[in-house]
Design a protein that fits this description.
- The protein is mainly alpha-helical and 324 residues long.
- It contains 13 helices and 2 strands, in the order H-H-H-H-H-H-H-H-H-H-E-E-H-H-H.
- The two termini are 27 Å apart.
- 24% of the residues are buried.
Length: 324
């Protein structure tokens, strides 16, 4: 159940109209890393998380709802930045003020080719925020469908990355406006991305085990191989030397991948090296994790019982209450 409070979470203000920046800000209204995408991403993920992780369902729904409020803030800011355009264009019987400002062929052509003024504001929506990115490309669910995998550890990692991308968009947007009020709004929205990053990170850490994502383990014959797949300056670092970050396996650096693959007959003769894991222990972990994840879900939502989304009063289902 949603309840709309008319006051914004953050009191957005603008000091003067700025259609050009309003066009850029559309990126966070209907763009791939915008607030609509974030809200629907977390909203969709929450359903699969409710059982067996009702606490993660709660945080996903809370953040999804906050993202909808951020969408409202962005939309309100865009609307204020476009003040005057809609009313001016409604004066269809007379030459619009915005067109009088563009007297001369050169001025008009400059406006037409100006990349920072989205044409939908002038000939499409007439000053109303549209669900497009800054280039006028309509929003699509393709932005987020891959983020709902049915495995919460994978989804939360995707959410951490999404908050990082959104933070960077706001950081870039801040460089294109001098309006102090707009800067305040963008700074608030950018900061909330950082806050959500940490919330998702903490939620992921609270799930044990959470690596690798999913159920099946990785094959110890290939999990710590680093192939030197380029020529020129070669660099070493914690990504190809020492121990791997999660499983603490020793990296096996393959200096000449072509020769290595040929000599091993396409890795068919590869044996685990630099790892404490064996094929047998991995197979056992696969079975253990399969049973664990299956048991978690089945205990939270037994298939032989009536299902009810709202928490039953007194622990009884609606059918049980109706028979009393």
């Amino acid at each position: 159940m949603f309840y709309h409070v008319k006051e914004l979470q953050f009191n957005a203000r603008v000091s003067k109209p700025d259609p050009a920046f309003a066009s850029l800000l559309l990126e966070q209204f209907g763009g791939a890393n915008g607030e609509l995408a974030a809200a629907l991403r977390y909203f969709g993920q929450a359903f699969g998380a409710r059982k067996p992780f009702p606490d993660k369902y709660d945080v996903l729904m809370d953040i999804a709802t906050e993202e909808f409020s951020h969408l409202e803030i962005v939309g309100a800011t865009i609307q204020m930045l476009l003040t005057g355009i809609n009313g001016d264009l409604k004066n269809a019987a007379e030459r619009a003020e915005i067109m009088r400002l563009l007297d001369g062929k050169g001025a008009k052509e400059q406006m037409i080719h100006e990349s920072m003024v989205a044409p939908q504001f002038l000939v499409g929506s007439a000053g109303t925020p549209a669900f497009t990115n800054s280039q006028g490309v309509p929003w699509t669910a393709a932005y987020i469908n891959g983020d709902c995998t049915g495995d919460l550890t994978a989804d939360l990692r995707s959410d951490i990355a999404a908050e990082s991308r959104a933070k960077m968009v706001y950081e870039y947007l801040l460089q294109f406006t001098d309006d102090p009020y707009v800067k305040e709004t963008l700074n608030f929205l950018m900061t909330r991305e950082v806050a959500h990053f940490q919330m998702f990170e903490a939620a992921l850490e609270s799930i044990k085990p959470n690596f690798p994502p999913g159920v099946l383990q990785s094959d110890p014959r290939y999990s710590n191989l680093y192939f030197n797949m380029s020529t020129g300056n070669d660099f070493s670092g914690p990504w190809n030397s020492g121990e791997t970050s999660e499983m603490r396996e020793t990296y096996q650096y393959i200096e000449d991948p072509i020769r290595y693959v040929m000599e091993s007959h396409g890795l068919s003769g590869q044996m685990p090296q630099g790892t404490h894991r064996t094929m047998e222990t991995v197979e056992q972990l696969d079975r253990d994790m399969s049973q664990l994840r299956s048991r978690e879900i089945n205990m939270a939502a037994p298939v032989d019982q009536e299902q009810e989304w709202n928490t039953p009063a007194g622990g009884m289902t609606s059918t049980e209450r109706d028979t009393i």
